[in-house]
What we know:
By secondary structure, the protein is mostly helical.
Amino acid sequence: xxxxxxxxxxxxxxxxxxxxxxxPIGSRIPSDAELMAAADAGRNTVREAIQALVQAGMxxxxxxxGTYVTAATPLSDLLESTGRRDxxxxxxxxxxxxxxxxxxxxxxxxxxxxxxxxxxxAAAFEAADLDERARADTALHAEIVRISGNSFFADIYDSSAxxxxxxxxxxxxxxxxxxxxxxxxxxAAIVAGRRDDxxxxxxxxxxxxxxxxxxxxxxxxxx
Length: 223
């Protein structure tokens, strides 16, 4: 059996145990050795399967303590079943905090990378390819999340890449969504270590989308 199929089989086994309640949320899953015996799989296969569920937001590793159940459903499944407004609100919360953290934790190498991604985003918006616009925009924001150093934020982006791409794809159809000045301010604030300014720049970028979507949905939007 191909290695990918072996890993998928162990992932399915782990998900079944979690979904059935055998391993409730908050509980520690069995050791690698126990899982190897239960799933009839090798150590590397078991570890790859566990990592897949860590990235899906269902498991979390705690150093020196073990691996614990955090959710019964993959984050990507939850996001795919939610509406655009919910995804945008999640992005605003995550991206604003991630930007502030990135301003504190960025390295000189990170700063150079952000400048390159900002330039690539600007170039993409000069072209008519909407997919390229969405990829360039997502790449910049995902890199900021990575620089933040928060592994859970990174897992959210990794697990929901498809959903986020579709959401961004809707946004970049509008030329007004370019917002290059705001993105330039965002990168400049992170590079300079100005966390409040970095968070505020994200809010300027995403809040119009969030509250515009809320208005279209008929929700009450504050003045």
